[in-house]
Amino acid sequence: LASLTAMYDYVGGFSDRYRFELLVVDDGSTDETAEIVDAFARKRREVRLLRQPANMRLGQALRDGFAASKGDIIVVFDSDLSYSVDHIGRMLETMERDHVAIVVASPYMKGGKTSAIPWKRAQMSKQINRVLAATSQYDVKTVTGMVRAYNGAFIRGLSLKSMGPEINTEILYKAQIMRVRVGEIPAHLDW
């Protein structure tokens, strides 16, 4: 509930510039996530719950979320707030200023950082992103990251196939083929 409240309050601060919806995709959780979101949404018309009947994996959850979204800009965010909510405003500013279709929150670019990630996992993630970035036409340091802002029409128009976290790489690959402009902001990933 604390994460949901923090996110709602933060994006509500943009209500003078943006109409917003907060779409929560519950990917088959077995805890009380759906009930918490339902109770929260009853008092806030901008909040919607999209509930998967079972864990469908990240790729399917994102595809379903994109399809159910209505906005001109879609921001994807982790529910645990391992990235602070202020990244949302910074991604929106970058999207508007640089006229890009995708903005990636990057802990691996200059100015970005990570905290409290198990050493082995951090090293693996950095290496994978280095390899993927080297094969990309974009100067993006975090190819696998999920915290992003998208042009709504662009992301809903993609034919995405990945079932797992590789969907984030697939999106950038397809954007590259389509010659879509991509931006990146330094981010702090706090595990």
Q: What does this 3D model show about the protein?
A:
- The two termini are 19 Å apart.
- It contains 7 helices and 8 strands, in the order αβαβαβαββαβααββ.
- With 191 residues, the chain is an alpha/beta fold.
- The radius of gyration is 16 Å and the shape is globular.
- The chain has a 4-stranded mixed β-sheet with strand order 3-6-4-7.
- α2 (33-42) links the parallel β1 (22-27) and β2.
What key attributes describe this structure?
alpha/beta, 7 helices, two-stranded parallel ribbon
Could you give a short account of the major beta sheet?
A: 4 strands, mixed
Average pLDDT score? 95
Q: Give the distance, in angstroms, between the N- and C-terminal Cα atoms.
A: 19 Å
* Shape assignment: globular
Radius of gyration: 16 Å
Strand content: 15-25%
Identify low-pLDDT runs. none
Q: Could you outline the blueprint of secondary structure elements for this entry?
A:
Blueprint: H1 2-12, E1 22-27, H2 33-42, E2 47-52, H3 58-68, E3 73-76, H4 86-98, E4 102-106, E5 113-115, H5 119-134, E6 148-151, H6 152-157, H7 167-177, E7 182-186, E8 188-190
Question: What is shown here, in short?
Answer:
The chain is α/β, with parallel strands linked by helices.
